[in-house]
TrEMBL record:
This is Unannotated protein. Residues 2-159 form the Obg domain. Residues 477-504 are annotated as: Disordered. Its cofactor is Mg(2+). HAMAP family: GTPase_Obg.
Length: 504
């Protein structure tokens, strides 16, 4: 079973926000005391924190799916729902976070560094918060937003000052065990070290960390052996110490050739050209090793390297080597730029930024995108007609309808708001100026909006014939009508003149 994991995939799911509450205060002698529904609680976040007690990503390897708790819905009597608990996950120092597209989004260095992997959803407003002077008793509440879901890749890059690199069985593990309190596995066969080991070294007043990287072989940069899996652990190091085996029994190998091979693999991996190199000629306690070290030391110094013959077994030359490492660390720390306090940059929203965008599609439909409008859609309960009317009023007030009209939308055009699973598709009908809160009486009951035809059963209009009763007919004697049973008048009678000119 694996005991060290330095690359995992994390599926983080934040908690959902609680729904708002629809409640009306009812007391004795006060049958309708007004709305008192509270807001829903906020969902919990998934948080990554650098923990010094964590040295591997093994926990995420066994349990990659992590979910925070959701917020509770609001209560009546003006009580808000409780918030969901944040899920805090410890990660090793030097963890790098990548998104689903492979782009680096965070580099966690330093104990206590915090990164929010997934943000919890906001709670919905209750009908108490939605009440206004014109909307006295809302019959709806807003829903809680769903929590953020993200797929992240975590990679561990060891935070060490010095990296020991070299062929398998070159004595790297023995060397780090001799100069520090680290106790890696040591054996007389290749690839004994399967995971990077860290050790703390004290040289005078300088304390630094040394990483023992598993052995490199030709082709490691292309994935051969274990080199490619752990070369990332040397990226943060100030200097590289080449541990060369002077007592190897292989006739086709020598320290100079081993150095060239390892340098070629480091060059193919890339990004390590500016690191300072130190040569440690190991195993000089052996007669052949001492002779080989004396033979190649001059050639390596001629190439510009600092060369230190050492023996991890007898501890010969280790003090000179550790003090040489300390000098490099001191020089690097002295040249390090002093970190300045992060300047806070405020970027206000532009005055002409409406917060949404309307796009006319080729099929004649229209798509509305924007954080605000998409959040409003997620918070709308589409089973409540009054909530739908409230959403329509908010969109109209924001200017969405005017923009749709400018883009060529007409009544009945298909409009999409949002994207993915939360997308809402509807046929656009321009709203009237009077909002849902302005309608009263029998036209607007709690939980309904009279602008939606499906919310109430409209009675069919019956044409009633206006027929006079017998008493009304008796009173029609003064009118000149052709049919006394209807109030319709007959055509007017014009006056005729007699032959003598008198009107009749």
């Amino acid at each position: 079973m694996a005991t060290f994991v330095d690359r995992v995939t994390l599926y983080a799911m934040a908690g959902k926000g609680g729904d708002g509450c629809v409640s009306v205060k009812r007391e004795k002698f006060k049958p309708l005391g007004g709305p008192d529904g509270g807001n829903g609680g906020r969902g919990g976040d998934v948080v990554l924190v650098v923990d010094p007690s964590v040295t591997t990503l093994l926990d995420f390897h066994h349990s990659p799916h992590r979910k925070a708790t959701s917020g509770h819905q609001g209560y009546g009597d003006r009580k808000d729902g409780y918030q969901g608990d944040d899920l805090v996950l410890g990660v090793p120092n030097g963890t790098v976070i990548f998104d689903s597209n492979g782009e680096q989004i965070a580099d966690l260095i330093g104990n206590g560094t915090v990164f929010i992997a997934a943000q919890g959803g906001h709670g919905g407003l209750g009908n108490l918060a939605l009440a206004s002077s014109r909307r006295r008793a809302p019959g709806f509440a807003l829903l809680g937003e769903p929590g953020e879901e993200r797929t992240l890749s975590l990679e561990l890059k060891s935070v060490a000052d010095i990296a020991l690199v070299g062929y398998p069985s070159a004595g790297k593990s023995s060397l780090i065990a001799a100069i520090s309190a680290a106790r890696p596995k040591i054996a007389d066969y290749p690839f004994t070290t399967l995971v990077p080991n860290l050790g703390v070294v004290q040289a005078g007043e300088t304390r630094f960390t040394v990483a023992d990287v598993p052995g490199l072989i030709p082709g490691a940069s292309q994935g051969k052996g274990l080199g490619l899996e752990f070369l990332r652990h040397v990226e943060r190091c100030v200097a590289l110490v080449h541990v060369l085996d002077c007592g190897t029994l292989e006739t086709d190998r020598n320290p100079v050739k081993d150095l060239e091979t390892i340098e070629n693999e480091l060059a193919l991996y890339g990004g390590l050209e500016d690191r300072v190199r130190i040569i440690a000629l190991n195993k000089i306690d052996l007669p052949d090793g001492q002779a080989m070290a004396e033979m190649v030391a001059g050639e390596l110094r001629a190439k510009g390297y600092e060369v230190y013959p050492v023996s991890a077994a007898s501890r010969a030359g280790l003090q000179e080597l550790t003090y040489a490492m300390a000098r490099l660390i001191q020089k690097d720390r002295a040249a390090a730029v002093v970190e300045e306090r992060t300047r806070i940059v405020l970027r206000p929203v532009a005055v002409d930024d409406s917060g949404f965008a309307v796009k006319a599609n080729a099929d004649g439909s229209f798509t509305v995108r924007g954080k605000k409008v998409e959040r409003w859609v997620r918070q709308t309960n589409f089973k409540n007609a009054e909530a739908i009317g409230y959403l329509a009023d908010r969109l109209a007030q924001l200017g969405v309808e005017k923009e749709l009209y400018k883009k060529g939308a007409v009544a009945g055009s298909e409009v999409r708001i949002g994207d993915g699973a939360t997308e809402v598709v509807f046929d656009w009908e321009p709203t009237i100026e009077a909002g849902a809160e302005q309608l009263a009486g029998h036209l607007h009951r709690r939980g309904e909006d009279s602008r939606l035809e499906s919310t109430w059963a409209q009675n069919e209009r019956v044409e009633i014939e206006d027929v006079l009763s017998e008493d009304e007919i008796a009173k029609q004697w003064e009118y000149n009508v052709s049919d006394p049973r209807t109030p319709k008048l007959s055509p007017p009678i014009t006056e005729q003149e007699s032959e003598d000119g008198d009107a009749k």
